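Q: Fold this one first, please.
A: Sequence and structure below.
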Amino acid sequence: MQTTKPWVKPALEFGPLILFFAVFMLYRNDSVMLGGREYGGFILATLAFIPALFLTTAIHWRLSGKLSPMQVATLVLVTVFGGLSVWLNDPRFFKIKPTIIYVMFAAILGASLALRRNWLGAVLSEALPMDAEGWRKLTLRMAVFFLVLAVANEVIWRNLSESTWVYFKTFGLPVLLFAFLLGNAKLYRDHALPVKGAEGDDIPKL
């Protein structure tokens, strides 16, 4: 990414989600007529989220010159399932979208293990240099983690209130992801690749 202010990247990543939350909270107890149809707060929030995600993804691409496979997949699934929710005026399509995303990611990671391919390392190795065993362990843990998130999403949207699901999506999922990354700090240290010091000595990269 080109040199930008530190707040730009998190703003692009979390901006659409915060907008979704704000619109939902503003209209969660109300309905609005659009094109002769009545829409509740959840659908209105979804309607705001989709173009916002397109905009932030385009800005990210403009600044960095590339998009990760995860970003592309997320944009496509948000458009498809978010669009279905708006078109059919049915929140269930958008609520099931995270489940599909997490199962898909878990399947990709599982396939990389079965095929003995380091697909996760190919994407993240520049930011997190590790040896092959480290990537194998992280790939397995992340595949299980995504499956857990998929199950959690299904349990929450099917059994709890709409507001609870929105809180879970907006705040719960980012917190769980942060906790997962932090919880693997020892793995990063134990399997970090050495880097050359000033005198040519190998120094573990923490």
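Q: Good. Now the second chain.
A: Here it is, same layout.
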Amino acid sequence: MRAIRQHRNFAVRLMEHLVVPTFVLDETGRVIIWNRSCERLTGISAGDVIGTKDHWQGFYTEERPCLADLVIGNAAEEIADLYSVDCSSDPARGIFSAENWCHLPVVGGQRYLAIDAGPIKDEDGRLIAVVETLRDITVQKMAQEKLEVLARQDPLTGIANRRMFDEYLETEWLASTAVGHSMALLMMDIDHFKAYNDTLGHLAGDSCLQRIAHLVTNETRRDCDMCARYGGEEFAIILPRTNLAGAVAVAKRISMAVALAAIPNPGAGRGAKLTLSIGVSAFDGDNRPNSPTDLLNAADLALYAAKQSGRACVCTPHQTLAA
């Protein structure tokens, strides 16, 4: 018995001094170990939490289950509702893994934690405790999020890039057509932009693209609208829950904003100002393209018609309108 006690005491001391933040719950959910690394992570001392079910206070501002509690309750199905990511690879054995943003109430601030929890059972297979370990991977998560933003953001203008545009178009098409909502698309091109670039240089061209992006986004005022740099001097806007007439109104508003900005384009002639050609298409009661590709092609053809009609105008698949 003495040897067993010595081994048990050694195991407890070992766990208490692990560099990985770790706590252990008994089969009722009460804390029996709260190691020093866990104290440093949460700012809560072992003496304040051992023997209680207050371990959640180290990580959340409101009472809710920690991953170890879900192991005790054999509640793997609740992970998706409580955690940002379910990483469990062996839930059948009661070993759960997840990731979550946690607000640490005592030390303050948010940390993104990778969490693992698994059962400890006796010789008869009965649960006697659950171990939860935590790794602070906030730096890695923030770096990942920045990379994800960069992957979908045009680096020059700061608005969405072609990749994000394509993803959002597909998503909104499925959402709109599923419930019969209208949606519209604007394709726009800066008129005589090559002449602008050739005359004033590429740095001026870059500044011009940034300014146009700012003007365009200012005229699309809803959170659900997406403005994207489609490529070169071409921009595109997705307008959910908007019919053709509504999209034409937005297009004219954008044209007016660019006209009022009065950006000189000396490459296009003396006194010339920058203008936009805009093509508009929609999925609504009178217009029923069969796919997002068809919607995009219709807007592109309308843009081409606007260019052929003398530029600085708005064109739908059916008619050319004064800007």
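Q: Anything worth noting on the second one?
A: The chain is about 40% helix and 25% strand.
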